[in-house]
Amino acid sequence: MSAWFEDMAIGDRLELGSYLFTAEDIIRFARQFDPQPFHLSEEGAAATHFGRLCASGWHTGAVFMRLLVLTHQRLDEEARQRGDMPVPRGPSPGFENLKWLKPVYAGDTIRYASEVTGKIETTGRPEWGVILGVNEGINQHGDVVFRFDSKVYIPKRGVAG
To answer: In the predicted model, what is the mean pLDDT of the chain?
Structure first.
């Protein structure tokens, strides 16, 4: 989905890859960024409503971002190998509706994807359009565990500076 604004269509889906959340990774992330008992140990989690060790929602979001960046780097390299110029991506004016819908437990594998849900022509920046998207993480059971709506500026062919 590394494309110009005009080339993107509602329903385009970009698979970002999967990530196995190990107990060690969950605890390491939690110690540094989200030291709540249900992220730090099985014992601490057992005394909470989660019942067992689960990842921080921020951890699930950080993994999404890593996989998104790596996917775009791969697509850019594939474009260069074909002799094409990679399409530059613009900034994001933000996101909405961030939801952690189900716990991500140690041992879960989450598959991430991003799908185009809308396109907005801009008047203030005519060389750019805004792509709206829904971004998800889905566990090995097919349950959506993580979701948010995004916006990103994408250049228009021939007018981006």
So the answer is: 94
